[in-house]
């Protein structure tokens, strides 16, 4: 089966580690390209390339502030990613609860201290 292009959907876009770093960097506030470059220690062309992909799939938005372009995440576009990841969060929570229950039921009784 051919691989999806990075611009085909949000899941394909976040498969690249630098794009995930950029999304994390933008999670709390909008930032300029130069702020992202400084924060992540990546080259400006690399950051711009990844921001273009993230914009094309709708994960980030951009607004102009004078000569600067400010980027921010789009929470609505991130929702499908969050819902998908939540499935696995529930799975691991259930698995950990089962391990805990099994460990507690097989634990030898504590000895009384004199």
Question: What can you tell me about this protein's structure?
Answer:
The protein has a three-stranded antiparallel β-sheet with strand order 1-3-2. The chain is α+β, with helices and mostly antiparallel strands. It is elongated, with a radius of gyration of 21 Å. The chain has five helices and three strands. The protein has a domain of 65 residues: Arc Repressor Mutant, subunit A (Orthogonal Bundle).
- Determine and state the CATH class of the domain at 10-74: Mainly Alpha
Give the biggest sheet. 3 strands, antiparallel
CATH topology (fold) name of the domain at 10-74: Arc Repressor Mutant, subunit A
Query: What's the total helix number?
Result: 5
Number of separate strands: 3
What value does the average pLDDT take? 85
Low-confidence stretches: none
Trace the largest sheet across and list its strands. Answer: 1-3-2
Q: Under the CATH scheme, which architecture of the domain at 10-74 would be assigned?
A: Orthogonal Bundle
What is shown here, in short?
The protein is of the alpha+beta class and 114 residues long.
């Amino acid at each position: 089966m051919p691989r999806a292009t990075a611009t085909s959907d949000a899941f394909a876009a976040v498969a690249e580690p630098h794009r995930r770093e950029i999304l994390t960097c933008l999670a709390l506030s909008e930032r300029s390209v130069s702020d992202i470059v400084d924060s992540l220690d990546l080259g400006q062309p690399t950051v711009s390339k990844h921001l273009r992909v993230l914009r094309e799939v709708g994960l980030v938005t951009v607004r102009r502030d004078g000569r600067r372009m400010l980027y921010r995440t789009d929470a609505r576009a991130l929702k499908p990613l969050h819902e998908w990841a939540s499935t696995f969060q529930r799975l691991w929570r259930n698995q950990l609860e089962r391990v805990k229950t099994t460990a507690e039921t097989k634990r030898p009784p504590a000895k009384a201290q004199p």
